[in-house]
User: Fold this.
Amino acid sequence: ALVEPEEEEVEIEALARSVVTDFENYVKLNKKISPEVVGAASQIDDYSKLADTVASHLAIKIPEKQEMLATLSVKERLEKAMGFMEAEISVLQVEKRIRS
Assistant:
């Protein structure tokens, strides 16, 4: 199905907001990242740069980061960033449960 450009923009905007929200949750769980980074990330209006910024702070393997950087579609990059982040959040939540 052909997606209208306007529809695509709205979808990308929604994805970007979700990425920022997930990133906030990730930073709350991962004490190694300062909360100011979230503020800076939420100000980025170039969504490709947003995906890269978020990925650079995730504790993911280099091949995963390279896979993201090699993805040209902004929508796909945001989706990958979100997927990696959700996986990392799950790991951090389990670690937190184990420690408490």
